[in-house]
Design a protein that fits this description.
This protein is 28% helix and 22% strand. The protein has ten helices and 13 strands. The strands form two sheets. The protein has an eight-stranded antiparallel sheet with strand order 1-11-8-13-6-5-2-4. Strands 3-7-12-9-10 form a five-stranded mixed sheet, with no helix packed on it. This is Cupin-like domain-containing protein. Pfam families: Cupin_8.
């Protein structure tokens, strides 16, 4: 895989850069941001970054010293796949999932690192707290009162199809180089998304091969590119990706490490919107058109507009789940759904 942005991507505008001086400034920026931004050198003082700058082997040694003696989940792709972890021709996956201890995985990476024909090796979304001792204490971003999920992503050269995530995301390059190609939320129609239930990693992904787009098959992808931005990150750099923004991610170096933080602006006891979408496909999508129109009106009334007229005629103490949700009322909805789905 070429390290310079190939072809059409070479001319895409760069993600805007911001400068922050300390945790308070970063907090202020995150609270007001509605679009992605890059902070150069945000984590340049991390010991892991320093180890990676010395060599990939030093970065691996640093992680090995702090690993817990647990099996890690690792994805192993196909030789000659150019690092792309994706579907195969039968819409299965072109990689296999294995479990092994980190020294064994890193031994494979030692052997494969300089072999361009070697299969990609990728450890995705490894919980920093569960799988390492002291790694977070020595290498973390102060995100104030947020309680993020901290994950580490480790691998050889890889290409991860464009996808999005419900939480906000701050992604920090600790070793190697990463390229992010970012698209606004509304571009989902132009990214040609694949299945929502059969996915490489839990989220629907773009079916477009970013290294060789087929515009005859995916003509609307040109419109997506008209709204795209690119961020090429060196060790120590970070990119902020707002909730639901689409991002295609490439590990450009022979060995790459990313640490990211996911958080929501809403309480954890609220449900996942994707689950509601999946349930709507089950219960509403295939209804007759006149019934679907009625359910669209009900969704607008109770969910999207949710104005005072919804509850004004009900005594305040009797509004139940129509009132602003609490952990208790959210729990009642969850229990009701679990009973209904188990029938």
């Amino acid at each position: 895989m070429a390290e310079a942005a190939p072809g059409i991507f070479a001319d895409l505008p760069a993600v805007p850069e911001e400068t922050v001086a300390g945790a308070a400034a970063l907090d202020t920026l995150l609270r007001s941001a509605t679009r992605p931004f890059v902070v150069r050198g945000l984590v340049a003082d991390w010991p892991l970054v320093a180890a990676g700058r010395r060599s990939a082997r030093d970065a691996r040694a640093y992680l090995l010293e702090r690993r817990r003696d647990l099996p890690f989940t690792v994805s192993v792709g196909q030789p000659g796949s150019d690092g792309r972890l994706f579907y195969d021709d039968a819409m299965g996956m072109n990689f296999r999932i294995a479990r092994a201890k980190l020294p064994e995985i890193f031994a494979q990476i030692d052997r494969a690192e300089e072999d361009p024909a070697a299969p990609p090796i990728y450890l995705g979304s490894i919980d920093v707290h569960d799988f390492f001792d002291g790694l977070h204490a020595e290498n973390h971003v102060d995100l104030g009162e947020r309680q993020p999920l901290a994950s580490i992503w480790i691998g050889t050269r890889t290409r991860i199809a464009a996808h999005n995530d419900h939480p906000h995301n701050l992604a920090c390059v600790a070793a190697g180089r990463r390229r992010f190609t970012l698209f606004p939320r509304e571009q989902f129609r132009n990214l040609y998304l694949g299945p929502v239930d059969n996915t490489p990693a839990g989220r629907a992904v773009s079916m477009v091969d970013f290294s060789a787009p087929d515009f005859a098959r995916h003509p609307r992808f040109r419109e997506a590119l008209a709204h795209a931005h690119v961020a090429e990150l060196e060790p120590g750099d970070a990119v902020y990706i707002p909730s639901m923004w689409w991002h295609h991610v490439e590990g450009l170096a022979p060995f790459n490490i990313l640490v990211n933080y996911w958080w929501r602006d809403t309480p954890r006891w609220l449900g996942q919107p994707q689950e509601a979408l999946n349930h709507a496909m089950l219960t509403i999508r295939d209804l007759p058109e006149d019934e679907k129109r009625h359910w669209r009106d009900l969704f607008d009334h109770y969910v999207f507009r949710n104005g005072e007229e919804v509850v004004a005629h009900i005594p305040e103490g009797a509004r139940s789940v129509l009132a602003p949700l609490t952990p208790e009322s959210a729990g009642r909805i969850r229990s009701f759904l679990l009973r209904a789905l188990s029938r």
